[in-house]
Amino acid sequence: xxxxxxxxxxxxxxxxxxxxxxxxxxxxxxxxxxxxxxxxxxxxxxxxxxxxxxxxxxxxxxxxxxxxxxxxxxxxxxxxxxxxxxxxx
Length: 89
Description:
Structural class: mainly beta
Strand content: over 45%
Distance between the termini: 7 Å
Oligomer: single chain
């Protein structure tokens, strides 16, 4: 947690003027900070066939990574966030 890295594969940059990439926006990058990693709530998978004595029960928890966008850079212009990331364990 708290690791900072850059994402260079940017598809769209918005704001006052929107830039759409074909397929990527050239020279754009996003600096992000990992704030939380964990597993989502449990999803129950239940299958049943009537009158056939068939019941199947499974569950699943999807892993996730929550990130905080620190800054977006495109065409030499940088937009930064006013707040700071809240890193939780």
